[in-house]
Design goal:
This protein has about 170 residues and is mainly alpha-helical. It has helices at about 50-75, 80-85, 85-115, 120-155, 160-165, and strands at about 5-10, 15, 20-25. It has one domain (about 50-165). Strands 1-2-3 form a three-stranded antiparallel β-sheet, with no helix packed on it.
């Protein structure tokens, strides 16, 4: 008794002889010189309590460092002898004030108002509007500070005349 065994080549064709070749589409070719390891299945469930706790820690750290830092920056930059001689001090003081307003209003929206159940009142909308406005104003202040420094570097002798036109 003889058994016929068919061999599948790399293209998926099964042939006992060349004339009667058939295509077997379910055969996959595996190269013997490649180490094929399967991807390990990772747990994709997200632990939201950990993420929220981490967000809270970051916010409290930002508040603990940001509020005193911004208050000290405003005090230093708005001293008469600093602000009188240096126009950049005004930009930095205003940036510190805007950042302080952003921190306090965003803290009010995220942490204080939800605990006292005032999420649909005018106070929440006002604090959210102020935080959004401050968030938009901060990059604009940085841009204006950079433009003011560019003018001071490119035209050092005309700085006073250009700044007095704008101020």
């Amino acid at each position: 008794m003889t058994t016929l065994t068919s061999k599948t080549n790399a293209s998926g064709f099964t042939s006992d002889d060349v004339d009667n070749a058939t295509f077997d589409c379910n055969v996959s070719f595996q190269r013997p010189d490649v180490n094929c390891t399967r991807l390990q299945h990772h747990d994709t469930s997200i632990n939201w309590t950990t993420i929220i706790s981490l967000r809270d820690v970051i916010w409290y750290l930002a508040l603990a460092l940001g509020i005193p830092g911004n208050v000290l920056s405003v005090i230093v930059w708005l001293r008469h002898y600093v602000a009188g001689r240096n126009s950049s001090a005004i930009y930095l003081a205003v940036l510190a004030i805007v950042n302080l307003v952003y921190l306090l209003s965003r803290f009010l929206c995220l942490y204080l108002l939800p605990h006292i159940h005032v999420l649909d009142g005018w106070l929440w909308y006002a604090a959210n509007y102020i935080a959004g406005s401050a968030g938009i104003l901060e990059p604009l202040l940085i841009l204006s500070f950079a433009v003011q420094r560019l003018i001071a570097i490119r035209r050092p002798l005309q700085v006073n005349r250009v700044l007095h036109v704008f101020c």
